[in-house]
Amino acid sequence: QVQLVESGGGLVQPGGSLRLSCAASGSIFIVTAMGWYRQAPGKQREMVASITGGGTTNYADSLKGRFTISRDNAKNTVYLQMNSLKPEDTAVYYCNVQGLTRGLQRFDVWGQGTQVTVSS
C-alpha cells in the first residue's frame, strides 16, 4: 500500500504565502505523476498543478505565476508554493500521486486534504 501525508495548510492573510507538502510512503517502486487539486465549498474539485517524473509542469491557467509545483524524487515528496494568495484560493487542497508499487502494480492515491483559508 501507498500512503500520503499532507502538511502546510492554514490561515493566511490576502497577499501572503503558504507551502504545501505531500510525502508518499509505502511499497513504492517508482512515482510518476504528482499533482495538487483543490475543492472550494460548493464547487467541484479542480486541478491546480501537476508535475511528471521528468519535471514537466502543468498549471491551471488562472494560477500561473502565483503557484509553483516542485518535487523531491529522493523523498517521494511534492510541494506547492503558493504566493500572492487571494480569498478565492480558499479551499481544501489534495495531493495526488501515481506510480508503481514494488509489486509493479499501478497506484493512484489521494491525500487526506489540507485546508487553506485566505482571509483578513
| Broad structural category | mainly beta
Average pLDDT number: 97
Query: How would you sum up the major sheet?
Result: 7 strands, mixed
SSE run: EEEEEEEEEEE
- pLDDT below 50 for ≥5 consecutive residues: which ranges? none
Terminal CA distance reads 40 Å
Write down the Rg.
14 Å
Q: How many beta strands in the DSSP annotation?
A: 11
Overall helicity = under 10%
- Which word captures the global form? elongated
> What is the strand content?
over 45%
- Alpha plus pi helix count: 0
Assembly type of the shown chains? single chain
Question: What does it look like?
Answer:
- The chain is an all-beta fold and 120 residues long.
- Helix content is 0%, strand content 60%.
- The chain contains no helices and 11 strands.
- It has strands spanning 2-7, 10-12, 18-26, 28-39, 46-51, 57-59, 67-72, 77-82, 91-101, 106-110, 114-118.
- Strands 2, 4, 5, 6, 9, 10 and 11 form a 7-stranded mixed sheet that branches. It has a 4-stranded antiparallel sheet with strand order 1-3-8-7, with no helix packed on it.
- The termini are far apart.
- The model has no long low-confidence stretch (mean pLDDT 97).
